[in-house]
């Protein structure tokens, strides 16, 4: 078992143990101590639920799950790009420039195939976002995208977007795989 998965299993076990202990304390408290009755059942249930919720969230965070407040928690890839992303051949993606600046350096995103898919194949972390035009893309940009030459990449771009206009603004989004699911 790799160290990341081993860590996640240990964290999940600790979380489950903590939840069981909280439940046991509440049950034993009701059974043995009159003072628990003074708090009232609704308040004790609320406190117990809040503690369980916090334990689950902390466990998810320690296990590597990140919660992006912007609501943009995934980046889509095609099925033929999955292996290239996981193997490190594809270390960036070039997208049409958007005005919302949704990709932030240092943020974590689920790498998914398909908008409706709940299954992610990796967690990626954005390491850089650069705005360029298609004509400004370097040979290194093309290699990081997973292509061996510009003509090969141009063909792919035309297949997705219809044409190649060198003045088209794009975002070059560099990333690294933090965890493969």
Protein model, in words:
The structure is a single chain. With 181 residues, this protein is α+β, with helices and mostly antiparallel strands. It has 2 domains: 3-62; 74-180, Sulfate adenylyltransferase (Roll), CATH 3.10.400.10. The chain is 45% helix and 22% strand. The chain has a 5-stranded mixed beta sheet. A hairpin with a 7-residue loop joins strand 3 and strand 4 (120-133). Helix 1 (3-32) packs antiparallel against helix 3 (41-62). The protein is elongated.
Number of domains: 2
Structural class: alpha+beta
From the 3D structure, determine the CATH topology of the largest domain: Sulfate adenylyltransferase
Helical segment tally?
Answer: 6
CATH class of the largest domain: Alpha Beta
**Percent of sequence in beta strands:** 15-25%
Helix content: 40-55%
- Biggest sheet: strand arrangement: 1-3-4-5-2
Largest sheet: 5 strands, mixed
Oligomer: single chain
Layout: helices, strands, pairs:
Layout: H1 3-32, H2 35-39, H3 41-62, E1 74-76, H4 82-87, E2 92-96, E3 108-112, E4 120-133, H5 139-144, H6 150-161, E5 169-180
Parallel strand pairs: 1-3
Antiparallel strand pairs: 2-5, 3-4, 4-5
